[in-house]
């Protein structure tokens, strides 16, 4: 019997813990930690994620400050807003929802956010801290994956973890976190040879590649724990359906535990953002 790792239930639990700690923080400092969320343009999926972030911010007792900018916002207008948020002492976390419209530079925006307020953990300074084993603000999706893995497995030490995908947002940071948990880590990608064979030797498989249903049953070793980061929309029998990078129904005979899509990693990403906002506020107030 495979265990279904319930990301929604675990996310609820994390938000409750954050709400408890936020209350204590407010009583101690007479300050409400605040998260500024910036959405540029009309991308429908980004709109849903931002609304969910704001809802969770409120449930956590944090203050949310939303900035909705039009699609034709210029780079200098966005730079100016970030600069203003960086200087505003009542703002503890800044998040610019990605992807940005094509005319705006994501690296420039990521680097413009002051590292102490970078609740996404994407700034090169925070990436450097993560890689050197001194993480403070860790990207939310990888953080959520690690929490789920640690809940599921007593000890990650010595396990062979295979990460499919080398993005800055998920693949690279999760590989580093797994390394810090004493896993033996293999990161595979589109140019890797023998990808199926490498995956077959995994005790932990993290799929973050954005290819619907790519990982099949014969890619897996019996007893593997699978974390599916993919959120892909496909058309099935004329209906739109969300699926992961893993052929969920097809692999269940092999997995010891698996995250579903939806209801797995996605909700954890937003819960970890709440945790990071509180962490950022705690660091800024010297606790
Ligand atoms: N600035 C950032 N931009 C983006 C990030 C990020 O961490 N920071 N990650 C993704 C989008 N994302 C959060 O922003 C995100 C994606 C999906 C979910 C989620 O809960 N998904 C649900 C399904 C939702 C649906 O029905 O469409 C699930 O998996 O159950 C949360 C957050 C890219 N941009």
Describe the structure.
With 287 residues, the chain is an alpha/beta fold. It folds into 2 domains: 30-115, Rossmann fold (3-Layer(aba) Sandwich); 140-266, Rossmann fold, CATH 3.40.50. Helix content is 42%, strand content 18%. The chain has 10 helices and 11 strands. The chain has helices spanning 7-29, 44-59, 75-87, 106-112, 124-131, 140-152, 171-180, 195-200, 248-251, 265-284; strands at residues 3-4, 34-40, 63-69, 93-96, 160-164, 184-188, 204-207, 224-228, 232-236, 239-243, 255-258. A 6-stranded parallel β-sheet has the order 1-11-8-7-5-6. Strands 3-2-4 form a 3-stranded parallel β-sheet, with helices on both faces. Strands 9-10 form a two-stranded antiparallel ribbon. α6 (140-152) crosses α10. Ligand LMY7XDAE is lined by residues 48-49, 95-98, 120, 140-141, 231, 242, 261-263, 266-267, 269-270.
């Amino acid at each position: 019997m495979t265990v279904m790792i319930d990301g929604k239930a675990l996310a609820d639990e994390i938000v409750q813990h954050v709400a408890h700690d936020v209350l204590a923080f407010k009583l101690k400092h007479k300050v409400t930690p605040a998260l500024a969320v910036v959405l540029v343009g009309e991308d429908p999926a980004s709109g849903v994620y931002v609304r969910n972030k704001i809802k969770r911010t409120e449930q956590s007792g944090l203050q949310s400050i939303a900035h909705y900018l039009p699609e034709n916002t210029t780079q200098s207008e966005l730079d100016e807003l970030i600069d203003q948020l960086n200087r505003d002492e009542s703002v503890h976390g800044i998040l610019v929802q990605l992807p940005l419209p094509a005319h705006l530079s994501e690296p420039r925006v990521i680097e413009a956010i002051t590292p102490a307020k970078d609740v996404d953990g994407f700034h090169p300074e925070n990436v450097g801290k993560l890689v050197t084993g001194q993480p403070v603000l860790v990207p939310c999706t990888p953080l959520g994956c690690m929490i789920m893995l640690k809940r599921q497995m007593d000890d990650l030490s010595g396990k062979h973890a295979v990460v499919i995908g080398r993005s800055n947002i998920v693949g690279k940071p999760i590989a580093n976190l797994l390394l810090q948990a004493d896993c033996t880590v293999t990161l595979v990608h589109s140019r890797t040879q023998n990808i199926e064979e490498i995956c077959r030797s995994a005790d932990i498989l993290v799929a973050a590649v954005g290819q619907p249903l790519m990982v099949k049953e014969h890619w897996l070793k019996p007893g593997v724990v699978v974390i599916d980061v993919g959120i892909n929309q496909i058309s099935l029998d004329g209906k739109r359906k969300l699926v992961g990078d893993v052929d969920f129904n097809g692999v269940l005979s092999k997995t010891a535990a698996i995250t579903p899509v939806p209801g797995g990693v996605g909700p954890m990403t937003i819960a970890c953002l709440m945790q990071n906002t509180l962490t950022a506020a705690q660091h800024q107030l010297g606790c």
